[in-house]
Amino acid sequence: MDLALWIAAGLLAAVALTGGISKTFVPKAKLAAAHGGEWTAGASVGFVKTLGVLELLAAVGLILPAIVGIAPVMVPVTAVCWVLLMIGAMITHGRLGQSELVVLNAVYLALAVFIAWGRFGPEPFVA
């Protein structure tokens, strides 16, 4: 179970890192032209960059606290925050009729729920 939770956290951290880098460093016009990034056309640059920074923090929060052993409870807390982010993403993509992205966000949400459940419940990090 511990290995499955680490794999899930690693996958989700990779997703968060990729999304965070693109939202933080790719120009908004280029994001808006890409499939899945159409929502950025109606959002401010500051909002898009803020989401990007939050995703970068999520990538760090899903892995680093457990590795260094400092505040490892932040791993499941970060996973719960990711659940909230994915609910927002699902609503946004749903409004745009992008059902395939809603399903993809639901998969990311399920991974985050698994991590939160596992690390708050049966496999917490022991200090």
From TrEMBL:
Entry membrane topology: Multi-pass membrane protein
Domain of life: Bacteria
Coiled coil: none
Compartments where found: Membrane
Keyword match DNA repair: no
Predominant cellular place of this UniProt entry's protein: membrane
InterPro entries found in the cross-reference section: DoxX (IPR032808)
Spans traversing the lipid bilayer: 56-89, 101-120
Keyword field: Membrane, Transmembrane, Transmembrane helix
Protein name, as recorded: DoxX family protein
Source organism (scientific name): Geodermatophilus maliterrae
